[in-house]
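Q: What residues go here?
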């Protein structure tokens, strides 16, 4: 079961993200019980500007992948884990505040 590993990784990723966006949130979903490669991690910022700045950081995805490895995520699956950045501002403006519609 990868629940605790994913929880630890999300916590570490949130710490990294909050260096650039102090109120960043991190959530994940996926069919990791089928295969650990089926994991998506979302980083939610307050503003579009924070989202753009964070997603443009040259090594941020590498840092997130290192956090997964350090948390004990299966090394073979780490390169396939997806990362997505979005802002509360965009979700409110373009998706009527509904994250489900944004993730579809």
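A:
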């Amino acid at each position: 079961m990868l629940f605790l590993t994913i929880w630890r990784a999300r916590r570490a990723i949130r710490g990294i993200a909050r260096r650039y966006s102090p109120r960043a949130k991190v959530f994940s979903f996926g069919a990791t019980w089928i295969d650990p490669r089926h994991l998506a991690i979302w980083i939610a910022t307050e503003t579009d500007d924070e989202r753009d700045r964070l997603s443009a950081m040259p090594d941020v995805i590498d840092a997130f992948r290192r956090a997964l490895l350090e948390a004990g995520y299966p090394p073979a699956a780490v390169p396939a884990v997806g990362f997505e950045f979005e802002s509360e501002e965009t979700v409110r403006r373009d998706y009527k505040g509904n994250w489900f519609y944004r993730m579809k």
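A: Context that may help when evaluating the design: The helical segments are 3-17, 48-55, 60-71, 88-94, 99-103. Residues 4 and 11 are 11 Å apart (CA to CA).
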